[in-house]
Amino acid sequence: MSVPNRKVLHVDMDAFYASVEQRDDPALRGVPVVVAWRGARSVVCAASYEARKFGVRSAMPAVRAERLCPHAVFVPPDFVRYKAVSRQVREIFSRHTDLIEPLSLDEAYLDVTATKTGLPSATATAEAIRAAIREETQLTASAGVAPNKFLAKIASDWRKPDGLFVIRPQQIEAFLAPLPVGRLPGVGKVMEAKLAELGVQVVADLRALGEQALERRFGRWGRRLHELSLGIDERAVEPERPTLQISAEDTFETDLRLDEIEPHIRRLASKTWAGYQREPGRLARTVVLKLKTADFRVLTRSLTQPMPPGSERELADIACALRARVEHAPDTLYRLVGVGLSGFVDEDGYRAQTDLFASEEASLPPDRLPPLEKGD
Fold first, then answer.
1. What is the CATH number of the domain that holds 49?
2. What's the number of domains the chain is made of?
3. pLDDT for the residue numbered 2
4. Cis (ω within 30 of 0) for the bond into 161?
5. Is 107 a catalytic residue?
6. 78, 93, 94, 146: most buried, per Cβ within 10 A?
7. What CATH number is attached to the domain comprising 355?
8. Burial status of residue 167 (CB atoms within 10 A of its CB: 0-12, 13-18, 19 or more)
9. By the 8 A CB rule, do 47 and 57 touch?
């Protein structure tokens, strides 16, 4: 059902941003804390467990959070501090294993099949990591222990906050059977509704439907659903996850027309370029412009060129030019804009490839030269 004897942890810091704020300001302890900028366009970055009792959740509009919990204390996020604590936690992980796959600042997978410490079990390793986090950061973390990543992630949420849960190989099928299918990765509201039409509510129903029926209905995704219903997940913990995209986006205080957003595009291009500079040895060939209309429709426009943008200004110029590919009426209002870089390639390989093409093209007559790549 999984790679034999693999032992995987998923470690998840509890209400991370809010917990850092409560740790650093004793006046915030025991009160509902919402990490967010105030304002009609702001969203919640994190909520303390005291705030969650009132229904406040991450990614919720801040104005709704304020209605749900009027006495909450709103704290603007401080990502410099959060990243510093995240580095502390990562260092604790690295004492036990080099096979660490970060998912965000506050969670990661660890393969502890073989560890540096020689602790007798994955459970003992998880307990040691949680104890060190508590002692060295004064924060709590929850952990899940399982034979694979998908099960470890479910397990880490099982006894939050400050909990530890273990799913052993012989327990997998019985553990999964009563779970709502929405607990499976990739099963969102739309897929839940489609499965409900087939009479599938829990994982046991999904398993009973069978692989062939699921594959006929959903193709390869149906086969994957069947594997998940049996607890199968062969994905390895990948310490070096290559960057797929770097982006920055912002929601305006008031909705703007397309011809009014150039200063915002250039400001966000500066942020994106700064992130790109922290990716040595990697080149991004695709520039992406993201827009969200006042009625919450999201659209993207992109351009892939033979040569990656060579400067912040060039990135901003391309992103601004991509507005010409937006077909909406000129008076359409937009509430959000984002600028991104994607299509990452290894620099050495890319340079070698372009040098090869350049030498080949030099030997061709002009009418045989390949056309420049165009993209959207």
1. 3.40.1170.60
2. 4
3. 47
4. yes
5. yes
6. 146
7. 3.30.1490.100
8. buried
9. yes
DSSP tally for the chain: helices H, then strands E: 14, 12
At residue 318, what are phi and psi to the nearest 5 degrees?
Answer: -65, -45
Domain that holds residue 24: 16-77
In the chain, % of residues over pLDDT 70: 90
Backbone angles phi, psi at 314, to 5 degrees: -65, -40
Q: Considering 91, 107, 240, 262, which one is annotated as catalytic?
A: 107
C-alpha 316: how far from its chain's center? Answer: 25
Q: What is the mean pLDDT of residues 116-136?
A: 96
Residue 322, CB half-sphere, CA atoms under 13 Å: how many?
27
Domain-ending residue, one of 124, 142, 171: 171
Residue 286 lies in a domain: yes
Q: Whole-number mean pLDDT of the chain?
A: 88
**Which amino acid, residue 109?**
Y
Residue closest to 150 by CA, chosen among 243, 227, 59, 211: 227
The predicted-structure confidence for 66-82, as pLDDT tens digits, reads as follows: 999 999 999 999 989 99
**Residue whose entry in the numeric block shows the structure tokens 């920055």:** 248
100-109, 213-222, 233-242, 327-336: segment of lowest average pLDDT:
233-242
Structure tokens at 370: 């390949």
Cα distance between residue 187 and residue 150, in whole Å: 13
C-alpha 267/C-alpha 215 separation (Å) is 46
- pLDDT tens, position by position, 180-238: 999 998 888 888 999 999 999 999 999 999 999 999 988 988 999 999 999 999 999 98
Is 106 among the annotated ligand-binding positions? yes
Looking at residue 27, the DSSP 8-state letter turns out to be G
Half-sphere exposure of 167 (CA within 13 A, CB side): 28
370 located within any domain: no
Model pTM?
A: 0.70
Q: Annotated binding residue at 98?
A: no
Which tens digits make up the pLDDT trace of 253-310?
A: 899 999 999 999 999 999 999 988 887 778 898 999 999 998 888 999 999 988 889 9
SS3 142: strand
| 8 Å CB contact between 30 and 24 | no
